[in-house]
Amino acid sequence: MKRVWLMIAAFAALGLARPAKADPAADLKAFQGYFQTRFPKLELKDYVNGPYNFSANDRAQWKQILEFPPYSFAVDAGKKAFDTKFPDGASYASCFPHGGIGIAQDYPKFDEKTGKVVTIGIAVNECRTRHGLKALSLTKGELADIVAYMTSTSDGKPIHVVIPNDKRALAAYEAGKEYFYSRRGQLNFSCASCHVQAAGKRLRGQYLAPALGITASFPVYRSKWGNVGTLVRRFIGCNKKVRSVPAKPDSAAYRDLAYFLTYMSNGLPIAGPGARS
């Protein structure tokens, strides 16, 4: 019961008190309005720069790193894998609208046939299994490279995640929102604890990125990882940091969390793949 009341308090702080019926559009307005009120000098499009909005020194170093982007090798490898024909002669391009080019801003999507949320990584794996190949790891490696390439073709396009008027889609959206605001693990932190309440503040020498715009740069190359990883890899890492048991990479929990969190950044430009410390 304590957890429920803590979550309700967090909703109320953002003006996201739960109505009788899910209202994603109202939530979006309240969510973006909260951050714009809290950081009035920050333009909406700049939220995709995450923690580098809060330190001139960190931003300068990050800009230097981007002169020779550490994710460029992943993009090249991803393009090569994306263009390679499957044994049956098909290709990734055959599984996506517009040949998979310039579509990353539309993910995650709700699949009316399965009633589930589909991230772009899961869509890549569904394409593979449909053509007789094994699914890849959803966290790093070849799949992260392919998604990095596909995301690079959407650079600058506004995020456009759709929540259709379907009770299953609305339920998935609500489940993602609940996950975002629910405290868990031995440290009793929620996603919102760090990326809403503490956004822009320092933790162990690093600035915490605001939740607004946080998905726009994924996949990202992290110096800590030494390679490119996906959004779900970050979810798993955050769960471990608060000493919680992570969900499975393709779980409904992470699909729905990505659905809610990315929808909250609708209108912001895709800025991925990105680089983070």
Quick structural summary:
The protein is mainly alpha-helical and 277 residues long. It has helices spanning 2-13, 24-38, 56-66, 72-83, 120-130, 142-152, 167-181, 191-197, 231-241, 252-263; strands at residues 109-111, 116-118, 202-203, 206-207, 220-222, 227-229, 274-276.
Characterization of this structure:
The relative contact order is 0.18. This protein has 277 residues and is mainly α. A three-stranded mixed β-sheet has the order 6-5-7. The protein is globular and about 55 Å long. The chain has helices at 2-13, 24-38, 56-66, 72-83, 120-130, 142-152, 167-181, 191-197, 231-241, 252-263; strands at residues 109-111, 116-118, 202-203, 206-207, 220-222, 227-229, 274-276. 42% of the residues lie in helices and 7% in strands.
Q: Please report the distance between the alpha carbons of the first and last residues.
A: 37 Å
How does the major sheet shape up? 3 strands, mixed
Roughly what fraction of the amino acids lie in strands?
5-15%
Beta-strand segment tally = 7
Shape descriptor reads globular
The percentage helix is: 40-55%
Number of helices, counting only DSSP H or I runs of 4 residues or more = 10
Describe the strand arrangement of the main beta sheet, using strand numbers: 6-5-7
Q: What's the gyration radius in Å?
A: 18 Å
Structural class from helices and strands? mainly alpha
